[in-house]
Amino acid sequence: MIRRFIRISLLILLAGAAIAESPYEVLRSTGEGYAEVMPERAINFPQDHQPHPDYRIEWWYLTANLTDDRGQPWGVHWTLFRQSLAPAGPVDDWSSRQVWMAHAALSTPEGHVYGERFARGGIGQAGVAIDDEERFDAWLDDWQLLGTGPGPIPGTLSFTIGDRTLTLELSADTPWVLQGQNGYSQKSDQGQASHYYSQPHIRTTGTLTAPNMTVNLSGKAWLDREWSSQPLAPDQPGWDWFSIHLDDGHALMVYQLRHDEGAPWLSGTWVTPDGNARPLTADEIELRVKERTEVNVGPEETRALPLTWTLAIPSLEQRWDIRAVQPNHWLNTAFPYWEGPIEVTGTTPGMGYLELTGY
Amino acid sequence: MSGLASLRRLMWVGLTLLSHYRRHPAQTAFLIIGLVTGVGIWSAVQIINSHARASYAEADQVLGAQASHWVRASDGGGVDPDAYIQLRRAGFTQLYPVIETRVATDAGEPLWLIATDLLALPRSEGSIDASGAGWLAMIQPPYQTWYPPELAESLGVAPGDTLTLSDGRTLPPAVPQSQQQQGRRLFMDIGAALDVLDRDRFSYLAAAGLDADTARELEAALPSGLRLEPNRQRLDLNQLTESLHTNLTAMSLLSFAVGLFIVFNAVRYALLSRSPTFHTLRELGASGRQLSFAILLETGVWSLIGTGLGLAVGFGLSQVLLPPLAATLQSLYGAVVGADILLRPSTWLLAWGITLAGLVFALAMPLWQESRQSVRAARDLSDRWVRDRTARRRLAWVGLILALAAGAVYSQMTTVLVGFVVLGLALFAAAFCLPVVLGAVLGWTLRALPEKAWQLRWAFSDGGAQLPTLRIAMMALLLALTANLGVETLVGSFRTALTDWLDQRLAADLYLQRDSLTREELNLPADADWLAASHQRVGLDIRWRGRPTEVRGLEPEAPDSRALPLADSSNELSLWYVWDTDNPVILANEQVRHLAGVESGQTITLSTGLGDRSFEIVGFVHDYGNPYYQFYLPRGEVERLWPGRAEPQGLALWLSDRPDAEASAEAALLAAGAQAGDWIRQAQIKTVSLRIFDRTFAITAAMNGLTLGVAGLALLTALLAIHQQRLPDYAHWRSLGVRYREMGRVLTLPLAVIVLLTWLASMPLGALLSWLLIHDLNVLAFGWTMALDWDWAPAIRLGLLTAGVVAAALAVSLWRLHRQLPEALRRLGGQS
């Protein structure tokens, strides 16, 4: 979702190209020269699993809520971002203007480990492509999401952080969910938008290996695909994003784009167990911060983040209390943000992932 | 007496002593000048040396990212990008690609260039953040070239300029900005380097912080043709550059010594006006212990002032001296020295320590002696003469002892450090003996002059009166002149030797530089009528006796192999040319002989691709400027012993004497696939080599100039002191009717004689110094031998320079004398 755009801004922040006061600026800058996100553009499979280098930014984004053999909660998030540094130019050699970035994070019952990597495009160190065996392949160095066919699901995710290696088998029976209007996801009333589709119903099993340790994991995962050239309006400082797997098989995505003044931009999607999606309008969603928690964001620094929320969708007669499983899931990457598993209680309980940016 | 009262009294005594400096600003100024110049030059070198060493400690980093290992191609041909990607995808994310190469501007100026992929640098090193703003533009067309600002300035490259290389290629637009460990190298994105330099391979892959297990895994995962090497640059650089830094330290210590002479001079000058204060203080009841404490206090205060100001000057000076030294280190040793100088606490402490030690000798001891003088200490001139004669004799005895010590240590000289101890002993022995010689010559001349020549006799007799104050300055001048002459002779001899050597070694007309352009590759027609001969060298780097060592394969029948610049050879030399596998012989550079201590006829063992092999050394070749050991074997033997490892090392072409030979050669080369700029003419290499040489010795010239400047100051302070102190005498002379012109003559003549004698003495001493430097120290330090090439020009230049300084100092003194004499006469009138 929109949230993912922030990661791309990392690249720009590091590149020093961003307007100094806000790394988010790249997300708000006009997409001049790049391809434009248009409502009438249809999403096509499997072609749209592949990169769209004529758009400024794009990502392949996976989160998973897992449990081990003892029933303890684990979480995984893995993202691959692509960015075009310039609207035109070569894609396929050392002069490529495509840049790739990946984040991988593992939420363990005791804590949180994560890593980040960068690579230039065009040289084979990172990319998304169809491999020699006609399989979907998304990779940066040895971090990889490899499909069994032309799409990422079913497939295998594998990455290493330090001396821990994770391998997850991913599969799903339901169709891809097109977010917004047939995959056209509006982000403001000023025309900012993205192309956006998801697979919220991914079954997953896998193993984590580390020296003297092997953990079997299983649970549910969520894959997002999104690309755009100008996703944010100039007065949107950050966002809060929720993806939730409910125990009855439904899935829910809700986000709010906070606004400098006035009401946030609220949006969401309700997905049935068989994969039918119903877009939620802003006036159907009641999202409130219940409590802020001090979170370690550096060796000597804490910040109060909204880690406990109430969410209600009266039109669906649903109401939940949401809280972070563990507070200390700050990613002190080059551009820092909070992302971690959440526990959902209420009308229908469940598990999910929360992302907080711009704090 | 209570403790407090005693402390107050001590303070009072100390302040009384220090008040001297407030009342005599000129003396204060000289003292400060002496301290500041001495400490300044010493600390500048200290700062530079420790900075360079700190840079070596970071030599296992590339642009701020650590590099514990290298991955290189076994055949020296560079690393294929596909192999790199394959290794990254196998999880070896510690690897990053580097292109490091030497290019040349179209004016032939060599430039070092380094390129990497900032995106691929290990994250923990934070290099992207460290590189700050601007890398976005750097990694995409039209790219950027990052110049260290200092280098951009010296090349005359302005931001946005595109520099043209000797091969006609153009570098991306310039941006003045430097990275950690960039040194004087140009920095570029690796994609840009592949494109601009038209390459398809990396020089090597660097690996950040591999632990032993990962290193083993990586080694196993390497595709064939690549090998993993530990990065030993830090150790190698420390070893290779040690001698150079010792040289610099020695020169800076000499400057420090000369600075102390000024201090000593100023203190002696001050003593005369201060002895009444000491006596008054004693009479007022200050105890000897209190006076001693006060003197220590004064010494402490001066040491702090001298250290502070000296370090400030030294820091400024180091900024000026570092660029030429950094250029030298880069061209000679490949060492990267950054431009950001830091003043370390250890330098502060060391500077304070040596200043304090120096001041104890130059300030505290004379003061202490003066304070112990009984009130009956005579104030008349004749007594001072007598005392001075005794002091001169005593100095000469010390000088003789130093000379004996120098001789004794010389026979035991095995390291550069001990070599400099010998030099120091010899120099100071000569300096200590100088006053007695000067006194003797003045005395003999006086005795030899006829009675009638009363004015000359007066002048030489007055020389005796000047000598006590002048002798320190003359000792400083002798030291400075000798050091200057010695070093100039060394540099001159070296330059002559280097020029001859270049003539002999660079005998071919054209040299092809691109390693991929071998004779075989070019497929030059053997019967081309423009080609007289050619020589394809090959080589590889190995380690021998723990040091980086080069093995070179020569073609024995090539013209330059037939006329190698041999320093020494055995009777077996001819065996090298007619190779016999059962009787393997080898040639080595002089460094092997002098630094590794191997003699002709001895056997050495090299580890080859086929195991250890032994060779008998049959000759040594001059190899100036090379810090590495080098061995020469016939090319075929190198290729046989190190299969697949010998890389091409350039192709030399001799042209026939046809008038259009050069044009034909160039046409043939172009037709064979070479590009303009791939070859270089003999004359151009020589020019560039000599330019590098001159730049290498720029720092020596700078140090030399500084030392002489300090000596000039010493002379000036001494002359001003003499005239200030003798003002009452001059007033007497005037009142007796002596004219200014006559006074000028009387004062100038002995001074001229004294300075002339000092200058004359500096010549044999300078020759001795240069002989020691060339014959012993240079060999110990670098392993290069050369002939001493004495040139009169520097001696005459220094003589003129000294005469100029003396004339200027004299003019200032006489002008001040002229202004102050009326006042002195009035005082004289008041006294009588």
From TrEMBL, chain A:
This is Iron ABC transporter permease. InterPro entries: AttH-like_dom_sf, AttH_dom. Residues 1-20 form the signal peptide. Residues 57-229 form the AttH domain. The keyword Signal applies. The lineage of its organism: Bacteria, Pseudomonadati, Pseudomonadota, Gammaproteobacteria, Oceanospirillales. Keywords: Signal. The keyword Transferase does not apply. It comes from Saccharospirillum salsuginis. Pfam families: CrtC, Lipocalin_9.
UniProtKB/TrEMBL annotation, chain B:
The keyword Cell membrane applies. It is a multi-pass membrane protein. It is found in: Cell membrane. Residues 250-367, 704-819 form the ABC3 transporter permease C-terminal domain. Its main location: membrane. The chain crosses the membrane at residues 248-271, 291-313, 349-368, 394-411, 417-446, 467-487, 697-722, 743-774, 794-817. Keywords: Cell membrane, Membrane, Transmembrane, Transmembrane helix. GO terms for cellular component: plasma membrane. Signal peptide: none annotated. This is ABC transporter permease.
